[in-house]
Design goal:
Order of helices and strands: EEHHHHHHHHHHH
Largest sheet: 2 strands, antiparallel
Shape: elongated
Oligomer: single chain
Length: 233
């Protein structure tokens, strides 16, 4: 930010919107990440591998992938740098595993909402609300999953992009169903799908647990906004 400029809060509908978290600002300690988000990493074993992965999530979110060293990650996990290589061959392998697990969870959330019983309106509100809550409640993980894609090598990136396309397809299917049923008035389904997902994902960039809203409140707000976006009838 240029010298002399002061951050001023944004307003939306008379409410104050928390400013985006800048690179380098505190994202929470490894212990806090473990307590608030580690349930996402239950499949990672043994315990040492899980501790390293959680430490990597925190470091990547706070410092960025390229500015983070394996020594940083090991130190946050309370381990020696040599211990990291027992479980992960490279720093990129850590990022790849974080990205894959995170995107699989995101896809599961959207599939559950997309394939449930109910109208397109109900399914879209469920998809958006759940997706936003995940990005807000797991903001540290989501920042890494959504914003470090370009740090992956070609093969790993291709795998993650395939998962992203599946996420896109679930939301697009709901919107198409709504248009076909006369529930939504949308001229460009693909463009609207992109807008909806971008809106949800961006929550991870600015959400602050010390801010004025809870993840549930933001999820409800965004679900309402998206239904207005699709011209709910």
């Amino acid at each position: 930010m240029p010298s002399g400029l002061t951050k001023r809060p944004l307003t939306f509908g008379g409410m104050v919107v928390p400013l985006p978290v800048e690179r380098g600002e505190r994202m929470g300690t490894a212990e806090e990440t473990a307590g608030g988000e580690a349930q996402a990493w239950g499949e990672v074993t043994p315990d040492a591998a899980r501790r390293l992965l959680i430490a990597a999530v925190e470091a990547f979110a706070e410092r960025g992938y390229h500015a983070t060293t394996t020594r940083d990650i090991a130190g946050r996990a309370g381990m020696s740098p040599a211990a990291l290589y027992i479980h992960y061959k490279t720093k990129e392998e850590l990022l790849h595993r974080i990205s894959r697990i995170g995107h699989q969870k995101a896809l599961e959330i959207l599939q559950t909402a997309s394939r449930r019983e109910g109208t397109a309106r109900e399914r879209l509100a469920d998809a958006v609300g759940s997706f936003v809550r995940w990005h807000a409640g797991g903001r540290t993980t989501a920042r890494v999953v959504q914003y470090e894609l370009d740090s992956l090598g070609p093969d790993a990136r291709a795998e993650i992009l395939a998962l992203r396309r599946q996420c896109d397809a679930e939301v697009q299917r709901i919107i198409e169903d709504g248009v076909a049923a006369g529930e939504f008035d949308v001229l460009d389904v693909k463009g609207t799908t992109l807008a909806v997902l971008s809106l949800c994902i961006d929550v991870a960039r600015w959400f602050n647990v010390d801010g004025p809203w809870t993840p549930d409140e933001v999820g409800a707000l965004y679900a309402d906004l998206v239904l207005r976006m699709v011209g709910e009838k």
